[in-house]
Amino acid sequence: MTQGERVREVRKNLGLTLEKFGEKLGVGKTAISKIERNERGLTEQMTKSICREFNVDYIWLTTGEGDNIFVDTDDDFLERIDRIMAGENDARKSMIKTLANASDDDIQTFDRLVSQYISLRNGGETEKDN
Predict the structure, then answer these.
(1) What residue spans define the domains of the chain?
(2) Cα(87)–Cα(58) distance, integer angstroms
(3) Pick the residue with more confidence: 66 or 34?
(4) What is the rounded distance in angstroms from the CA atom of residue 74 to the CA atom of residue 64?
(5) How many Å apart are CA 71 and CA 54, to the nearest integer?
(6) What is the C-alpha end-to-end distance of the chain, expressed in Å?
(7) Distance, CA of 71 to CA of 12 (rounded, Å)
(8) Surface-to-core class of residue 130, CB atoms within 10 Å of its CB (0-12 exposed, 13-18 middle, 19+ buried)
(9) Whose CA is closest to 50, among 69, 34, 66, 78?
(10) How far apart are CA 100 and CA 117, in angstroms?
(11) Which of 8, 30, 53, 91 fits 36 for a cystine, CB–CB 3.0-4.6 Å?
């Protein structure tokens, strides 16, 4: 199955017309039609837009690998964390959820803070001290 055929399968699974599908992505029905007929390649930007807008699995859309067209929503993911962490305190669950939703910059900042904390705790110098 080609990428264009996979785009068509996504659209059909969602029950959307070419026009409605394109509207969600900021393009016209002609652009979607050309992608589905493999007359126009699927750009990386369009691929990411489809995945983000319709919760489509990126690997499935780009390669055809995998069994699932759609990925879980953030709400499904957060509910899964609650189930996995049943019996844990709310602070621990909230911390995991916060990290799961953090941006790359947030994670880098958190990593620096933890490293500085560990260094101070062990009597070492922080980056600011150097």
Answers:
(1) 3-63, 74-129
(2) 34
(3) 34
(4) 23
(5) 9
(6) 57
(7) 17
(8) exposed
(9) 69
(10) 21
(11) 8
Rounded Cα–Cα distance for residues 104 and 55 (Å): 20
pLDDT averaged over the chain? 88
What is the pTM (predicted TM-score) of this model? Answer: 0.58
Encode pLDDT of 60-115 as tens digits.
Answer: 999 999 888 988 767 767 777 777 788 888 898 888 888 877 888 899 999 999 99
CA distance 83 to 37: 43
Integer-rounded Cα Rg, in Å, for the chain is 21
CATH number of the domain located at residue range(s) 3-63 in this protein: 1.10.260.40
Cβ atoms within 10 Å, residue 112:
12
The backbone torsions φ and ψ at residue 70, rounded to the nearest 5 degrees and listed phi first, read -105, 150
